[in-house]
Amino acid sequence: MTHASRRLVRPTGSARRVVSPPVARHRITPRDIEAVAGGSPGAAPLRELLRGQISKRMLMLWALLRGLENADLDDATRTCVDEALRVLGDAQRRARDAVHDLLLHPTIGTWLAGSLRRCWQGSAGPDLDRLGYVGGIAVAAALRARMPCRVPVRIIDGLVSIPTMGVVGSGATSGWGVAHVSDRRVTLRGSAGWGPAGGDGWTPARMLSSTVDGHRIALTLEDTDPFRAADTLPLPVAARCDEAAARWQRLLDGAWSVLAGDDGVRAEEAAAVLSALVPLREVPDRPGTGVTVIDALGALMVSPPTDALWLAITVVHEAAHTRLEMLSDLAPLVGPHDGSVHYAPWRPDPRPLAPLLHGAFAFAQIAAFWAGRWARDGAGSDLGAAYEFAWCRDAVSAVLPVLRDAAGLTEAGRRFVSAMGARIDVWIAADLPIAATTTAATVLRDVAVVWRLRNRRPDRDHIERWARDWAAGRPCGRPVAPSSRLVPQTEPYSPHRHARQALTSLRFAMPDRFAGLAGSAGLDPAAWPVNATLGDLLYVRGDLGRAAEEFRRELQARPGRAESFAGLALVLARRAGGLERRLYLDHPEALLALSVRIRELTGSTPDPRTLARWIAAGGPGYPDRSWRSLKTRPLPVGARR
Q: Could you read off the pLDDT of 270-281 as tens digits, one per residue?
């Protein structure tokens, strides 16, 4: 891949104009790809990945400035762009590495990508607030280079944003001002007069940092920059708050103690690729929601987690996504999207090939995290780590056949999947407590059943024929599982684990707390995970008879609730065989659709067990299609015995 060289601009008269795209070369070897896939890329490949991002940002800046050369800009905006470009060029020559670090800041990536899209669409006029942000970038570069300058800047909501540095206040609510940089200070002159940096008009960006055993992480707490948000965020960004900043520092200290204390190499990898923390708004049912945005690589975007351990896992997860996206920029792993989507145990919705690969890699890194905590104990007393390791390992193993057979992978992608799969294959042989492995397999089956209920719809004619036979009191005339098609659920749902998953994790990680929830005196819904029901709690506790009764009651109150129907199907499948068992586990959407249709026809809802037994019993009209000769293709869930 080519990338930006050391010179981005050249002088032409009083301004600096963009010339041909700057170029240089990157080199990612097959061994580097395998090292990243194996979870231990080392310092040299990480440096190359970061150099690739510098190149990408510089080329994006070049493309934006080139596109603005012929844009219809007013004089003030044109002056801002020209002066900012001149200052950036001078600062780059004086302090190249410092300016490159600035360009790597996530908010600048978000600004660049959004500006380029708007520029290329060309359907709307120039966004002056957006373009004026380049003045703040130039001011930040000048501050880093200790270079005096004078740059026009845009005032947005009474503030001028200086990326990585903070914001300067102005009495004006909008318009243009002039920022003066001297002696590491910024003063702003506009309609409101002067506001000195470091005084009342200056709100500095805050830093979060932590050091454990010589391993250090430093993140800009990005809670003021107007371009810290992205269009695809699952939650809004949080506002600046001193109390929240102190809380984030405590959480980071705890998370870094976990990461650096367990695995210094993994900690260093995260510290190398993450440079900012963007707090998302706190929502009770989605704690610790993390996201990696391609336009803002390097940002850890996360809502407040429940504890430091959760933040540590989020750091591992998002750092993995970031490394993989950086690698993909230099060595594409997936070709053009072919429209196919696939089951992923960690998501409630179907995933295209590229996101499927991303998820598999991220959960492989989380598996490595839990494997390290399990091995650290020696005697193996951390059953929570053993269970989480088994679940992550088997979840990734479930999608490896799809990834290995995918025609959409490039040669680099096939090499990546092969190296990642080799690591998982070694983990499959790990000696773990039987309780952890069997429970992980059960939860994976649970996840697969819920996923099918949400995203697959059985053949309508097949269901109608079943329902008519039932309503007429006839034997099932077609005792075979219907085909189904993918119809992703459109109703909003949380990407987090459903309640039985959360309760199972709690049972292993905090058995005393789980015992309090599940005890006869502790059935208090206020203390349960969000969206948990009494049926969920009883099921995880192992009281399957009462759980089945509760699931039936829940379905009477909320017909079609996927989690309740799946829970009941899982209980019933334990004592079933043949087609009846396959209907519960591999075709639950058929049973649910039949139940709904019979209710429409008769006004009553039959029990799923009665329906499954009726179908499996078959009818005299189809002796050659009995369940004994039925061949189904169950959805794999990666359960290992």
A: 999 999 999 999
